[in-house]
Amino acid sequence: MTNDLIARMHDIERLLLRKHGVHLRVNKISADKRNALCSISQKAPSMFRTPLPNEVLLEKAHCALIPLHTIGLRPLVSVSRTLPPGTVAMNGPQDPFGLRLALREAGMEDVMQ
User: At residue 94, does pLDDT exceed 90?
Assistant: First the structure.
């Protein structure tokens, strides 16, 4: 993955978290190394933020994870329950959505170069 791709994915991650209170995570790469198993959740509703329907959360996740197709991964996304305030932290700028960690755990570090 190029630095431009990583930077773009980090910007998308930051936008999802700040604008919609949505946390998207690549949890694991499947054993056949074709699928990225991901989860999306939204912070608890507040006075300024209404909960998004599951369909909208899934659409946002799939749009955010389109770059995974360029490295041969298909995102499979599940919707998790709402998280309490203060429990979601953004990943570092070099690991958008926890993708690098998932790739490393799957033995696919070479995809990151």
Answer: no
